[in-house]
Amino acid sequence: MPPDTRGGYHEDMTQKPGYTASKEQLSKRLSRIEGQVRGVAKMVEEDRYCIDVLTQIRAAEAALQGVALGLLDDHVRHCMSSGDEADRAAKTEELMGAVGRLVRG
User: Fold this and answer.
1) Cβ 18 vs Cβ 79: under 8 Å
2) Which domains does the chain show, CATH number per domain?
3) Residues whose CB is less than 8 angstroms from the CB of residue 11 and which lie 6 or more positions away in sequence, other chains included
4) DSSP secondary-structure letter at 12?
5) What is the pTM of this model?
6) If 0-12 CB within 10 Å is exposed, 13-18 middle and 19+ buried, where does residue 8 land?
7) What does pLDDT average to in each consecutive run of 10 residues of the chain (105 residues)?
8) Alpha helical stretches, state H, the chain
9) Hey, how many other C-beta atoms are within 10 angstroms of the C-beta on 24?
10) How far is it between the farthest Cα atoms of the chain?
11) Is the backbone of residue 93 left (phi > 0), alpha (psi -120 to 50) or beta?
């Protein structure tokens, strides 16, 4: 089983994450999504029509899904491209766990 990375990268991680090159763009996308979620909260406070609120929730979910897919792509192209066979096997197991959590929501 791969090490728990909730507190950061594992100790043997020597390279920067794959998204480092696009970190500014990623931060901007996440800020826009944060604004969408705040907008949803405001809609609820204003007693807006349920379907309109649900539509905005789905839009925020889709935006987050897009960010997640981009991170997965960066991870596969960057973080999984090196290491020996055992290391790649562990990284593959870790990746598949992350994909499973992402798909199951």
Assistant:
1) yes
2) 20-104 (1.20.58.1000)
3) 3
4) T
5) 0.73
6) exposed
7) 51 63 88 98 98 98 93 86 84 90 84
8) 23-45, 50-74, 85-104
9) 8
10) 56
11) alpha
